[in-house]
Protein 1
Amino acid sequence: MKKYCYGICLVISITINILLSIYIYAGGEKNQEISHRLSLTWTEKAAAEAEAVAAISCSGHGRAFLEGLIYDGQPVCECYDCYGGADCSELSPDCAADADSGDPIFLEPFWMQTAADSSVLIPGWHRMSYQYNDDYTLMSTELEYYIRKLHSIVGNAITQGRYMVFGVGSSQLLTAALYALSSENSSSPSNVLATIPYYPMYKGQTVLFNSENFEFGGDTNSWQSNNSTSNMDVIEFVTSPNNPDGELKQSVLGGKTIYDHAYFWPHFTPIPGPSDHDLMIFTLSKLTGHAGARFGWAIIKDKDVYDKLLNYITVADLGISKDTQLRVLKLLKVAIEEDGKPLFEYSYNTMRDRWDRLTSIFSKSTRFSIQDRHPLHCNFYNETRLPSPAYAWVKCEREEDQDCSAVLEAGKIKGRGGSVFSADNRFTRLSLIKSQDDFEMLMLRLTELVSLEDRNIETM
């Protein structure tokens, strides 16, 4: 009888195990999916709202946003320049090409293609504290790790053994760096210098803050010819690649220097080697295109300078938004996928194609010229390439064209005049990093303007 009972128990046990195995291996994946779907509670509404807004096409000439304008309870399309109408389908035939701002919208299509990997949903209770609880700092340790990893992959900056500070874009870090490097002797403030043509924010911020510790001294070369650096405290801004002309620059004076590396990425310039300077500043906006995120970082060699710079950020803002840091982390995880190849191939190909088309137009002109570009070996791609700067630095060659910006504006092209960069007004900066619609309009207006040269010759 006992043997009979043992036999029944064995059969039942085997049957249960077989059924359990079938459940796990045949239906487990489906059941896990159902369980996962049922667990999506508070995220469902937020995700549905985001998907609904993203599905509004705006005819491909604009975007709708969750926090944008609402009409009749529905998000409204925000149209790109030259387009209008409820769905941005109406092109204004007389619209001027706006090539003034450095808004890096050219990368928008890449992020739309990687929406599933680059999107982030932020809960209402996310990081409500000023600090991160793991080490009581204002900076995400994980984000810092990914920034360092990105630089290692691209090979554009030495980060090992260096300190890092986050800022509200590179703009805040520029002033923080001045504060950290400036003289503490108010009777002899530090002279802040930059080489013409230079980014106007250097002068603008220095004058605005009106500090007792530093003052703007103008062009580096002019200042050097009239002064001795041996007994004067000087801070030099070096933008490399330069804004507006895209040239790789080095310090003129070789003293205290702030290297602004906003454009030192493979889509704008070949990377000949890692930057290894005492203070280097980078920004997310020209790396991924997310100018609106307002995020930048400084890489610092000296501990005392690091402490001062960090103190400035802490006193000014108590750190950077935790929501911003989460979003940037998500973006950088996508940026380094496959060692950065998808992002940089897309961005470089876009910029290269734009420069090819731009160069073709200017090659037909004797009235206008653009800066020369020289090939360099790029360590990231392991090949020699031409730079593809963010901006065209246009020169009006005719003697009578004293104001190049006005000449272009008469041809329905909005640029940024040379005097903004403390240069001659024979020069004008044209932005090449806006949306594809903006670039196409710029190509149209430039083609029209250059074609007038042939007509003028025929009538002479």
Protein 2
Amino acid sequence: MANCLHSQLPSQAVRENYREEGGEMAEAKTVHSPALTYFSMISLLTLCPPFVILLWYTMVHADGSVLQTWDYLKQHGLQGFIDIWPRPTAIAWKIIACYAVFEAALQLFLPGKTVEGPISPTGNRPVYKANGLQAYAVTLITYLSIWWFGIFDPAIVYDHLGEIYSALIFGSFFFCIFLYIKGRVAPSSTDSGSCGNIIIDFYWGMELYPRIGKNFDIKVFTNCRFGMMSWAVLAVTYCIKQYEENGKVADSMLVNTILMLVYVTKFFWWEAGYWNTMDIAHDRAGFYICWGCLVWVPSIYTSPGMYLVNHPVNLGIQLSIYILVAGILCIYINYDCDRQRQEFRRTNGKCLVWGKAPSKIVASYTTTTGETKSSILLTSGWWGLSRHFHYVPEILAAFFWTVPALFNHFLPYFYVLFLTILLFDRAKRDDDRCRSKVREILETILRKGSIQDCPRNLLRDPDSMTNRDTPT
């Protein structure tokens, strides 16, 4: 996954509004004009919530047909949209509360190895307890067990899915208000502050590493234990619902569910590596990422399985195996790309990549505090094939768990389209971040105009950069 979760609602323009200045935040030059920046933010704030409801309604009640939903809205207008928006119910709130409390308890109390995150711009180094894989296993085993022994029927989750999404939309919005207030009055670290604009502060977030108490990391909860875990839980839910409706599970649903579970399993296997990515180490905890993880992931990311519940497709054994193998291969390549990068970082380049010493470039850059540091950049293995190569298997994996739905409707492929746009945005953000660190070297490369005459480091993914954090 673009380092698994990526940034859920792309907004490079907003991100560039900030720069660190000794723990405080100051307003910096925006990538786009101020008008376009605010239009982008307000559009995402206002359009994403109703889109979640429209996607659910179309998948569940309009046969997956965008045209059918469009015809309904043309006939009934705004009142028709208000009528189809489900009201949060007591059972929806209970399901969300039980799930959230269960995952929070697992995050706090399951044992795990202590892992340190990267040093922040103000010199803080967050400490985490790596127990995500254990939490993932306990969650799925518990969920399947309470279904098997008749304690709780997961089909209830599907039957109340619209109400759950509606409750998440409103509940997560108020949670983001809580994060804004907490960042103002009780920040957890010096990696916090305001840019002076309440809309940007709410959207982008006030804190980099917000915590409740000493040990409960809010972004680990929202991004990993609520958002990513819900992906697996809902994939299983859709499978069980189809089984209860039809007395069997179609091979198309099995392929979709297996690939999604393999993908999420890979995430939790690699969770400690995720804590070094842009989502955690650079993006603040605001509407931009937290609302996205709490609402966008459970709805949009799981949507191919949601569609397949009422649209079972018989692929046949041969085609099912082909899709399954191709999808698992893509997930493995995506994992191996990240593994190469993490190993390269961990050993400061003193490792083997594809059986031989990696090629690398050492580059120097100046931090916002004026300190000069050096970084090493990996330019071999998967990272020697092309810039951002790891995004290719990422997009292909999403395609392979969606393609069992075949091509009768476009909407199941919305996540693939969204992911592609998102990763192009992330690639640009990564490039801009790298360019800001090593601008002089990059300008030399651009002047030379020939790849053969240029250092290879800046022609590769800047996410392959490893900070040595050693002043020079």
Protein 3
Amino acid sequence: MVRITEDLVRRRAEHNNCEIFSLEEISLHQQEIEKLEYLDKWCRDLKILYLQNNLIPKIENVGKLKKLEYLNVALNNIERIENLEGCEELKKLDLTANFIGELSSIEALKYNIHLKELFLVGNPCTEFEGYRQFVVATLHQLKCLDSKEIERSERIQALQNYPEVKQKIREQEQAYLLRRAREKEEAQRRMQERKDKKQKQMESKLGFDSPDSLQNKENHQAEGDREQEMWRTVEDDEEDRRFWEEPTPYTPESRLETHRYIEEKRRAKDNIRESKKREKPFRTLVTAEGKVLNVNVPKLHFSLKDDEENNQIILDLAVYRHLDTSLLDVDVQPTYIRVLVKGKPFQLVLPEEVKPDSSSAKRSQTTGHLVVSMPKAKEIILAKQKVSTSVKDSDCNTLQKNARRSGQVEKLEVDPSKYSFPDVTKIIQAKERIGQGPIRLQPEKITETKKSYVDFENKEDVPPLI
């Protein structure tokens, strides 16, 4: 049975910063609520209250909501109008698709002088002869009934025929109440039959587990479980077919019974799912002999790199990029590493023994991968490579050694014969003076082999091209 709790009200009051004492509007529709309570104590300032599509059988505990202007209790199990006298500011009341058969109970709304709109569509009372005339003549303050405006001429005519209409309504009410009494008895009988049938089924299931059947289960456990599961599935399908195809009247009891049946089926499915989770064996990470296994339950890509230069092993595990780091648990052991990703184990045997205390783990800021650096336990001393330098003068070597010993700054020497750039000092070649007169540039010496042409004639009087 679902009830109105303070936690539920606070969750539905997010628009008011989860404060319920100053709440003016709240929606509690489709919550499978079976009793209306506590709202008149917690939310005294309510003006709009939505309670449609629940299982509420009675209007109660709303009389202290003095500021309530709109109450919506459509699609519930309400059978009469009551306990609304204290709602002094009530202007709109929606009772669509309920089970109101006592039409005379609307006389309780006479005290709600501000009531302007009333909705009774889908109730058994709307099928009574003279229904609209009776409501219009009873509630003088009403302006609109079932989304249809009440005209002045309609009200005058209803008041003129009120005694006769009231008598007809009383007679139809009595007939309806007798029919409802029979429906309640039928619903109780049907419910008792269903309980007896279920009890017999439980007894038959207990009888199914006889010693012979238990021995058979021990011999053929897998096959027996499969057959039993198939038998239960077929039985459940047959029960569902009978339940939904059986003709039943639309009453508060049948509506409540349908809800309980659906809830029971859902609970049974949840129990089966939980039992399967419990029955699922935990994956073995270390055998009974102490052998560590390689396991990759989360099915992640990874790479294991041996960094010889830094004498360490690096594991790159491609965890999900947007996965929160709090969902990762890294455990480095001397011979293996284990990472729990959202509770799913990833375990890898290492090729060499490592130092767990000196290991480090970090997340990549670009890819989100988990990078674990594990120094090797066996240290390897690598000799530094000597760089041979060809220096012609032996004095330079002596000076360098002395500089290292004395702690002076060591300077690099460059072999002039290995210049890789042109000498800017020799771009302009030297010029020679020939006799008297102006200085003439000497022709550039060309080392390349000149091509000989047959028709070429060298004239000395023509100056050279520069």
